[in-house]
Amino acid sequence: QKNIDVREPIPLEEFDASKWGSNYYQIGKFYGFFKTDHLSVIAPITSDMETKGYVAIHYSMTNLYQSRSSILFIMQVIFLLCYAATSLLLWAYSHYIRKPLARIMKGASEYAGGNLAYKIDVTSDDEMGYLAKTLNYMSDELNKNGEYQRKFIANVSHDFRSPLTSIKGYVNAILDGTIPYEMQERYLKIIAFESERLEKLTRSLLTLNELDMKKRMMHIQRFDINDTIKNTAATFEGICTSHQIRLELLLSGHELYVRADMEQIQQVLYNLLDNAIKFSNDNSSVQIETTVKSGKVFVSVKDYGTGIPKESLGKIWDRFYKIDASRGKDRKGTGLGLSIVKEIINAHNQNIDVISTEG
After folding, report:
1. Are 295 and 266 in contact (CB under 8 A)?
2. What pLDDT sits at residue 229?
3. Where are the domains of the chain?
């Protein structure tokens, strides 16, 4: 290279600006001025519409190639990082979103097809896992509900078939003369008994159906529960007298007011008394007691009958559950009385408990 003073420009006899074209740059040794290739860029200097000379800037191509290699290396690194990040995002999407979503869609399809036993295999702690757990819980509840419905229909069919078979058999026997005229009254009483049993079962089913309706409005009012207990107990005087069972009312105060649906609470009292009397021995007693604790009225119905086995205590509220029909004095129980009691008490957001010892 040569030292150049701007006050002493170097004339280049071979220089021809027209050969540079419109870009004003070339790659070469710049008319032998450099030993290696350089990128040379020129710019004209004009004055009064006349070109006075040119300014040239040169840059070594070796340095330029090194700079380009550095830039390309950085770009390649950035590309690889972007590629790796994109691959990681795709893997995360596939692992955490697409595959779990596919399993959830498969589960939804199975549920729609009636396979409620299918389990969605998504155990993550994110939104997908929560959705899968929710759908699994829903399918379990639907499956339980389906099992309950099948059991419910089977129990209803069984409880209807027995009295209907008796009624049909005795009616046909009377019609074809198998039962003589003088004995017809006895069998007509059995038919009436079975008809009453069917009526009670139907009435209980209708009551449960009404209680199952979520939009059913309760008529909450203020009433004297002591008076309601007295009126309900009075309906059992006949059967208690015939079996010599004493109804003992241990009521707190002359009047005791509560806020509830009086009709439904009366149904609760009736079912509890009916159950207590049914399983009480002759010459025993049934006690109905009211007490007040912390502003709340507690009502208890106590009998001294056969008692409930320990393994059956948790099942007595189930629909159609019967401990042993032979324990009661009659077999016309529907197994729905205590279920109705539980439904009504739950609808009032209250609790009912049982304490019993067999024997």
Report:
1. no
2. 93
3. 1-110, 127-212, 220-347
Fold of 127-212: Helix Hairpins (1.10.287)
β-sheet with 50-60: strand ranges across: 25-28, 38-47, 50-60
End-to-end CA separation in angstroms for the chain: 122
C-alpha span between 33 and 28 (Å, rounded): 10
- Measuring CA to CA, how many Å separate 22 from each of 171, 281, 288? 120, 122, 114
pLDDT attached to residue 327: 43
Task: Specify the pLDDT at position 165.
Answer: 81
Which pLDDT does position 328 carry in this prediction?
43
pLDDT at 225: 94
55 forms beta bridges with: 43
Mean pLDDT of the chain: 83
Q: Is 84 exposed, middle or buried (0-12, 13-18, 19+ CB in 10 A)?
A: exposed
Distance of CA 285 to the CA centre of its chain: 46
Tally of CA atoms within 13 A in the half-sphere of 65 that contains its CB = 7
The model carries a pTM of: 0.51
Q: Give the position of tokens 């197994």.
A: 335
Which pLDDT score is estimated for 3?
Answer: 66
d(CA 243, CA 275): 14
Contacting residues for 354 by C-beta, under 8 A, at least 6 apart: 308, 313, 316
* CB atoms inside a 10 Å sphere around CB 321: 15
- In angstroms, the CA 278 to CA 301 distance is 13
240 vs 232: CA distance, rounded Å: 13
> CATH assignment of 220-347, given 2.40.128.110, 3.40.50.150, 3.40.50.2300, 3.30.565.10?
3.30.565.10
In the predicted model, residues of the chain with pLDDT beneath 50 are 1, 214-215, 325-331
Please report the sign of the dihedral spanned by the C-alpha atoms of residue 331, residue 332, residue 336, residue 342.
Answer: negative
- The one-letter code for the residue type at 81 is L
